[in-house]
Amino acid sequence: MWTWFYRLASPPFVYRTAGTLTPWFMAAAAVAIGYGTIAGLLFAPPDYQQGDAFRIIYVHAPSAWLSLFAYTTLAVAGAIGLIWRIKMGHAVSAATAPIGASFTLAALLTGSLWGRPMWGTYWAWDPRLTSELILLFLYVGVMSLRAAFDDPGRGDRAAALLGIVGVVNVPIIHYSVVWWNSLHQGATVAKIGKPAMPGSMLWPLLAMFLGFMCFYGAVLCMRLRGEVLNRERQSAWVREAIQS
Amino acid sequence: MNTAEGLGVEAVHVWRGERHVLKGVTLAIRPREALHVSGRNGSGKTTLLKVACGLLRPEQGHVTWLGRSISDVRSEYQHALAYASHEPALKADLTALENLRFMVGLKYRSNGAELIGCLERTGVARCADLPVRVLSAGQRRRVAMARVLGMRAPLWLLDEPFTNLDAGGSEIFAALIAEHVSGGGMAVVVAHHELVLPTAARRLELPG
Amino acid sequence: MSATRAMILVVARELRLSFRRPDQLLQPLVFFLIVTTLFPLGLNLQLSLLKDMAPGVLWTAALLSSLLSLESLFKGDADDGTLEQLVLSGHSLTVIVIAKTAAHWLLSGAALVLASPLVAIALGIPVAAFGTMFASLVLGTMTLSWLGSIGAALTVGLKRGNVLLSLIVLPLAMPMLIFGAGATDRAISGMSPAGALYFLGSLCLFTCTLAPFAASAALRITLE
Q1: Cα end-to-end span (Å), chain B
Q2: Reported pTM
Q3: pLDDT tens digits, one per residue of A200-241
Q4: Contact call for A153 and B17, based on CB within 8 A
Q5: Which residues are registered as beta bridge partners of B94?
Q6: What are phi and psi of A14, to 5 degrees?
Q7: Does residue B11 belong to any structural domain of this protein?
Q8: B90: helix, strand or coil
Q9: Range of the structural domain that residue C127 is part of
Q10: pLDDT tens digits, C108-163
Q11: pLDDT of residue B199
């Protein structure tokens, strides 16, 4: 069993596995997102309260979920790299950071677009969007810290520590923003929540969640291959892999 | 190689970014031995000392003290060593004596008279109550050496201790190292040039 | 040589060093007052309206001026080489970090709390709310010192590390800002601030128990 674990830490193995997994993830993502988009846009009935505007949930909710999932992945992979000194952990952490940040931006943009018909304004300091914004700051912090070090090893370890500190704080930040919002907003403000969901609305949403996860997996594998090549560029197997 | 009596560094590899700074360095020090580490700029002399102190973890290889890995006996090892880095490691706003009181005081209940004695031995007793800010580079180096004396540590790890010293200072330092070694201590001294060390001193040349 | 005695020695050294440079001691305090002045100038409000914004203004100013002094938590020692000596002192680095952070709070956070009545009066906070304000500021500045020690340890030795330090610490400090200003706000409106203060207290406890370990781990990483 330990040999399997050690193989997981070997760069050539990670490189090859990520390469084989990518097309599978992409195919699954295409199917799931395809179904979800078509069913969500065409076949799900309009919400009685929000009309057709609610449909943006099919992009907004998976993006938000993935932004959190990616940050957790970043923190866990960084912790593996920090505690067990497995360099591939740092590679995964570095690869996932920009992807997660992009999902956070997507969640913010779609949330803002959704807010326009709801609140009449593009930004109203809604608790969920405010938490997403702070999450974006956390991502930027981790990425900037990694980039600030001349020695990439130290940069990886410092970013890993910050990722762990951040992931512990995410629930605290979320709860405090919800509390803050409850002080200042009346009950009349419509929240970007999930409306009551009949099956025809729910299944496309679940499909989109799955599709986004697969898409994340595919993009992560692609970026991971690039990270591994960059980090191991001095070693012999990389030279062979490039030439072949 | 018998490392059970002192410091052992075995097959240590260190990479700084892309540079392979230390390539499988091995050394051992026993009591009454002094090791002179030399090499060109960038050959890894300071890195080697930091690895020996435990400040830097090598990618491969390990460091032992009295036969046991230094990560297992961290506190005891740190009590047994006195490290003098390239900078004198003194707070500029405190006086020489205050600096010594603090650093030595973390290890032992220090005696002011004893610390002034250390300052006398390195020739800067009159600087005891002067803030380090007003001292010259050579005087600061002497105060740093007084700190090493005050630590009462068997192992001395000194990085370029002769920097900024005049001829008189160099002689005093060489005599102090010799006295320490012949009294049962150990010393690893990093220095560029030819040193006046005890004749029994071994030499480790690091390839650049 | 016990850990307590080592902590006392470190705190004493920090205090002695700071009092030798009294100008550096006062600068964050003056910054606090200046930032507070910016808000009424920029917003051009009457005192009665300013009162509604007062907790937020007070807290933002306190946050920003605490950040200023955080940069020097480890930087001075790292620059002159004494940080390495502290790591090699034979004491757990966590103990040393606790002592340095405690000293830092005494010199910056405590000073802010003492100066806060001036600012509170200038912003129109009623005296009845002062008790809550003090409590929230004490808890909040402590939390910020601990949180900031992690950021300071991660960015020690980096070029323009102070900008990165703010970038890292401010998002993590937002809950503290929310509850601290929220508690003061509730006290001003006559409602009970207890809930917010309890949460602030638990946040402070949580941070001060875990942050020293994270900060000492961060120092080991940056010293390598």
Answers
A1: 25
A2: 0.90
A3: 778 888 899 999 999 999 999 999 999 999 998 888 888 887
A4: yes
A5: none
A6: -60, -40
A7: yes
A8: coil
A9: 3-223
A10: 988 899 999 988 988 888 888 899 999 999 999 999 999 999 999 999 988 888 89
A11: 54
Token pair recorded at residue B99: 């600096």
**Which two structure tokens, joined as six digits, stand for A170?**
């995410």
Rg of chain C over Cα atoms, rounded to whole angstroms, equals 18
Residue A199, pLDDT score? 73
Higher pLDDT, B37 or B200: B37
Residues of A in contact with C210 (CB under 8 A): 168
Which of the four pLDDT bands, split at 50, 70 and 90, describes residue B111?
confident
Instruction: Please name the residues in contact with A212: beta carbons below 8 A apart, sequence gap of 6 or more.
Output: A29, A33, A62, A63, A65, A66, A103
CATH, residue B137: 3.40.50.300
Q: CA-nearest residue of chain C to A169? A: C172
B140: in domain: yes
Q: State whether A176 and C164 contact (CB < 8 Å).
A: no
Residues of chain A with pLDDT under 70: 1-5, 48, 50, 183-197
The single residue listed with the structure tokens 């996860």 is A213
Radius of gyration of chain B (CA): 17
Q: Which residues of A touch C155 (CB under 8 A)?
A: 145, 148
Tell me how many domains chain C contains: 1
For B128, other C-beta atoms within 10 Å of its C-beta total 18
Domain enclosing residue B136, as ranges: 7-198
Q: Looking at chain B, which subunits does it touch, using at least 3 CB pairs closer than 8 Å as the criterion?
A: A, C
Mean pLDDT of chain C: 90
The tally of domains found in chain B comes to 1
User: Chain C residue with minimal CA distance to A175?
Assistant: C175
pLDDT at B166: 87
Identify whether B1 is part of a domain: no
| pLDDT the model gives residue B1 | 53
Residues of A in contact with B16 (CB under 8 A): 151
> Considering only CA atoms, which of B38, B42, B35 is closest in space to residue B8?
B35
Residue B23 lies in a domain: yes
DSSP chain A: -HHHHHHHT-HHHHHHHHHHHHHHHHHHHHHHHHHHHHIIIIISPPBTTTBGGGGGHHHHHHHHHHHHHHHHHHHHHHHHHHHS--HHHHHHHHHHHHHHHHHHHHHHHHHHHHHHHHHSSS----HHHHHHHHHHHHHHHHHHHHHH-SSHHHHHHHHHHHHHHHHHHHHHHHHHHHHHHHHH--TTSPP--PPP--HHHHHHHHHHHHHHHHHHHHHHHHHHHHHHHHHTTTSHHHHHHHH-
CA distance C145 to C157: 19
